[in-house]
Amino acid sequence: MTIDVDEQIYMPSEVVLAFFRIFQEGVSNAVHHGRATQVKGEVSQLDDTTVMFEIQDNGKGFEPNKSYEELRLNGHRGLANIMERITTLRGEFEVESVPGKGTLLRCLVPIVQDNDEN
Question: Which of 54, 74, 78, 98 is the most exposed place for a label (fewest CB within 10 A)?
Answer without folding.
Answer: 74
